[in-house]
């Protein structure tokens, strides 16, 4: 009898970008709990080292690694070094690193557009470009791309962020189609409000920054730890879409069923609140 492979989240040899805080940190901890070895990659080296040390203190193996996901050469180097650092081929990649950016179209500088696109979209592109072929050749594993409900939510004054996350969702859908039948699962995570550092680390107008902080405090319906656990379970089941909160699932269905009405309601609500 042929032995069935373990689900990809179990005993994984994993690379997690943006592992220094938020959902990325929760992914790293959860993978360690599931018996995995984790490269904790983050542009903030001190954060990466702190998370890796915490995992090591629990008796699991974790390796800190500084990497700017928007830099193709650094991501190429990470993909080349990962197997040596982990002691075996990479079986799971979580493209999580991201930043927040808000402001009306025409007021957000093109420099800030490039900054946000470089991290949120190009970072995921780089992760898929360099790691997907290795996983396909291995014939086993998984890729989780952290998108957002912003990919389909069309929230005003969040155009740059929305565009990057829509790109991540489209990339994930395409990658899932290309990797179908190869033994490599792909999941796109699309949360709404989750308590993370994205507001503090991002660039948002002050009024939107305060609103986002309040939303994370008052309206977050789920923790980053629970998101990580549920998303890894979703990957193990081979499911593409992971919308962990009911508000995100409702918005997803509403927009697909009645896109014109959805956009009208979002727009009119925005103008009502702005007045």
Write up this protein.
- By secondary structure, this protein is of the alpha/beta class.
- It has one domain (13-274): NAD(P)-binding Rossmann-like Domain (Rossmann fold).
- The protein has 12 helices and 7 strands.
- The protein has helices spanning 22-33, 45-57, 72-86, 110-120, 122-138, 150-153, 159-178, 198-201, 206-218, 224-236, 246-257, 259-274, and strands spanning 13-17, 37-42, 62-66, 92-95, 141-146, 184-189, 241-242.
- Strand 1, helix 1 (22-33) and strand 2 (37-42) form a beta-alpha-beta unit.
- Helix 3 (72-86) runs parallel beside helix 5, helix 4 packs parallel to helix 7 and helix 11 packs across helix 12.
- The longest helix has 20 residues, at 159-178.
- It is globular, with a radius of gyration of 18 Å.
- The model has no long low-confidence stretch (mean pLDDT 92).
Search tags:
single chain, 275 residues, alpha/beta, Rossmann fold, seven-stranded parallel β-sheet, 55% helix
| CATH homologous superfamily classification | NAD(P)-binding Rossmann-like Domain
Q: Shape from CA axes?
A: globular
The main sheet comes to: 7 strands, parallel
Element pattern in H and E = EHEHEHEHHEHHEHHHEHH
Q: Which value, in Å, is the CA radius of gyration? A: 18 Å
Q: N-to-C terminal Cα separation, in Å? A: 68 Å
Structural class given helices, strands, pairing? alpha/beta
Main sheet: which strands, in order across? 3-2-1-4-5-6-7
Overall pLDDT score: 92
């Amino acid at each position: 009898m042929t032995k069935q492979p373990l689900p990809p989240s179990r005993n994984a040899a994993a690379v997690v970008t943006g592992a220094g805080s938020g959902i990325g940190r929760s992914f790293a901890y959860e993978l360690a709990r599931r018996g995995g070895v984790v490269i904790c990659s983050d542009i903030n080296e001190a954060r990466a080292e702190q998370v890796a040390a915490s995992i090591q203190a629990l008796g699991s193996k974790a390796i800190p690694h500084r990497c700017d996901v928007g830099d193709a050469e650094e991501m190429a180097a990470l993909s080349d070094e990962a197997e040596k650092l982990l002691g075996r081929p990479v079986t799971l990649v979580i493209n999580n690193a991201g930043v927040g950016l808000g402001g009306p179209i025409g007021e957000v500088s093109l420099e800030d557009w490039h900054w946000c696109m470089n991290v949120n979209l190009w970072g995921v592109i780089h992760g898929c470009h360099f790691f997907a072929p290795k996983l396909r050749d291995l014939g086993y594993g998984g890729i989780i791309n952290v998108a957002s409900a912003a990919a389909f939510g069309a929230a005003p004054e969040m155009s740059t962020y929305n565009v990057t996350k829509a790109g991540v969702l489209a990339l994930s859908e395409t990658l899932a189609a290309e990797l179908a039948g190869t033994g490599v699962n792909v999941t796109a995570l699309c949360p709404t409000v989750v308590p993370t550092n994205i507001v503090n680390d991002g660039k948002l107008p002050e009024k939107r920054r305060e609103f986002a902080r309040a939303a994370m405090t008052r309206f977050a319906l789920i923790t980053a730890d629970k998101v990580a656990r549920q998303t890894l379970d979703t990957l193990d089941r081979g499911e593409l879409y992971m919308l962990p909160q009911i508000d995100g699932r409702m918005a997803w269905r509403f927009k697909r069923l009645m896109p014109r009405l959805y956009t009208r309601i979002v727009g009119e609500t925005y103008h009502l609140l702005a007045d």
